[in-house]
């Protein structure tokens, strides 16, 4: 009887452990809701503490990122909303345009809900974490310095200069990591916009620190040596110190009425920005704003530019149509004109569709985090107060009902198609729309203009595996050669 009793005890212990593992998250997060728990979306919260993060990471690292949401659909049906435990928070994943519209645009019921690690690294006074009214104020104060027509027209000159010189240099370098070089290209631009000529002296170190910062944004919040978050925290400290020194110097110059710089930059605009009540931004707001714009104007535009270039080179007929549009713009240019104008940028209709299609396929930011300010219903299911709502852009961008043959790169799908606000969200939506979106698109379109006219891309490892976290990119960073095909 001894062995039988031992076996029974082991089996009983195993079953008890299994029950505990299966139900501990329910006990912590769902049971306190009482009867309201029965109106939660279908789904499961996975293992204690870890939640669904293990299956999420496995899906994205397997090369089949969409299999994560597909597993919910297969098990629970196409409800468009599922409960999960993500990044340490009880959450709902929202996968329909209608549901995302509620999450993204109903500011009375939802507020920013980014993971604590993201808030810490991007800044507690950046756009991603401040309350709605403060967000509106900060957006009003900074939008003219970033996306205003005067600012974009001014930045266009430098963006074009850097694009032309970068392409020419790369064509002479032989083998390069195309993505790495593009990230340096966009970093040069954003630093020039931020701090003007002073950017050249600190460029290399700042880029290195920002790369470490960005790698920690989606990492687990483990502040110990060797972990990505720890490296990111240290990188942020160094970035803040550099920007603080620049802000301090500018304030001294303004106080002493020193105006010797020939070019303006964003940091001057942020220091001088004044709201309707006469209030100005403090140093922390200025620095956090600049760090956030680094992400919009550097990281996302660099990746999107790489993929757009790759897709164009993979589809000769699309390449030729986009190139013909650029050649037509040059032919119609007055003989005395030497550079691009904003009027010409607006004439690049087909190239804009190439960029939109690239952003749809790549979906640089796969989700946005919101927190329910009160109990809210979406698709008939409860999102409890305090739970996170994840607007899952990637699923919408690959929905065959909205985008037939969604895996196909087809800029012409946009010819007679105007998506609803939450059917296409490369920069988010609603009041939290990325404030640097127009600047990012300008960087991409100027680069592609000159690439199409004068260069071609030869990938040396076209079958390189693709990784999807933290952003979609080839594992080899797109090792390639840039070939000049005519005089730039």
UniProtKB/TrEMBL annotation:
Cofactors: heme
User: In its keyword annotation, does this UniProt entry include Oxidoreductase?
Assistant: yes
Instruction: Write down the CDD domains for this protein, in alphabetical order.
Output: CYP90-like
Topological category with respect to the lipid bilayer: Single-pass membrane protein
Q: A Gene Ontology molecular-function term? A: iron ion binding
Q: What is its main location?
A: membrane
Gene Ontology CC annotations of this record: endoplasmic reticulum; membrane
Question: PANTHER family under this entry?
Answer: CYTOCHROME P450 26, ENT-KAURENOIC ACID OXIDASE 2
- Purpose: Catalyzes three successive oxidations of ent-kaurenoic acid giving gibberellin 12 (GA12), a key step in gibberellins (GAs) biosynthesis. GAs, which are involved many processes, including stem elongation, play a central role in plant development.
Name used for this protein in its record? Ent-kaurenoic acid oxidase
Source species of the chain: Acacia crassicarpa (northern wattle)
């Amino acid at each position: 009887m001894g062995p039988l009793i031992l076996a029974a005890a082991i089996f009983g212990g195993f079953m008890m452990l299994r029950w505990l593992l299966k139900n501990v998250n329910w006990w912590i997060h769902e049971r306190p809701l009482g009867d309201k728990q029965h109106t939660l979306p279908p789904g499961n919260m996975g293992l204690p503490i870890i939640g669904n993060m293990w299956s999420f990471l496995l899906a994205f690292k397997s090369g089949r990122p969409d299999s994560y949401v597909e597993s919910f659909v297969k098990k629970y049906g196409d409800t468009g909303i599922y409960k999960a435990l993500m990044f340490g928070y009880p959450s709902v994943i929202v996968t329909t345009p209608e549901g995302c519209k509620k999450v993204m645009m109903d500011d009375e019921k939802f507020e920013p809900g980014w993971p604590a690690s993201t808030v810490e690294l991007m800044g507690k006074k950046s756009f991603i974490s401040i309350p709605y009214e403060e967000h509106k104020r900060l957006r009003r104060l900074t939008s003219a310095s970033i996306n205003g027509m005067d600012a974009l027209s001014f930045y266009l000159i430098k963006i074009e200069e850097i694009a032309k010189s970068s392409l020419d240099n790369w064509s002479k370098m032989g083998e390069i990591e195309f993505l790495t070089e593009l990230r340096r290209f966009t970093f040069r631009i954003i630093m020039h916009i931020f701090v003007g000529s002073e950017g050249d002296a600190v460029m290399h170190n700042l880029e290195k620190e920002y790369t470490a910062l960005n790698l920690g944004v989606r990492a687990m919040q483990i502040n110990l040596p060797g972990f990505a978050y720890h490296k990111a925290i240290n990188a942020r400290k160094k970035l803040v110190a550099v920007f603080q020194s620049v802000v301090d110097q500018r304030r001294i110059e303004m106080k002493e009425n020193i105006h010797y710089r020939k070019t303006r930059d964003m940091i001057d605009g942020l220091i001088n920005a004044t709201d309707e009540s006469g209030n100005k931004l403090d140093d922390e707001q200025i620095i956090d704003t600049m760090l956030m714009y680094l992400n919009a104007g550097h990281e996302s535009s660099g990746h999107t530019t790489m993929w757009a270039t790759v897709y164009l080179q993979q589809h000769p007929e699309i390449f030729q149509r986009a190139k013909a549009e650029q050649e037509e713009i040059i032919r119609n240019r007055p003989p005395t004109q030497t550079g691009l104008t904003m009027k010409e940028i607006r004439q690049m209709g087909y190239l804009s569709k190439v960029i939109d299609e690239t952003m749809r396929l790549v979906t640089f930011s796969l989700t946005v985090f919101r927190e329910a300010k009160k109990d809210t219903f979406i698709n008939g299911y409860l999102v409890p107060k305090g739970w996170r709502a994840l607007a899952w852009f990637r699923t919408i961008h690959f929905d065959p009902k909205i985008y037939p043959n969604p895996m196909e790169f087809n800029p012409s799908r946009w010819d007679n198609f105007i998506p609803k606000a939450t059917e296409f969200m490369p920069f988010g939506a609603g009041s939290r729309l990325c404030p640097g979106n127009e600047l990012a698109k300008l960087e991409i379109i100027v680069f592609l203009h000159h690439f199409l006219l004068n260069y071609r891309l030869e990938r040396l490892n076209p079958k390189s595996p693709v990784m999807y976290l933290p952003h979609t990119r080839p594992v080899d960073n797109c090792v390639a050669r840039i070939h000049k095909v005519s005089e730039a």
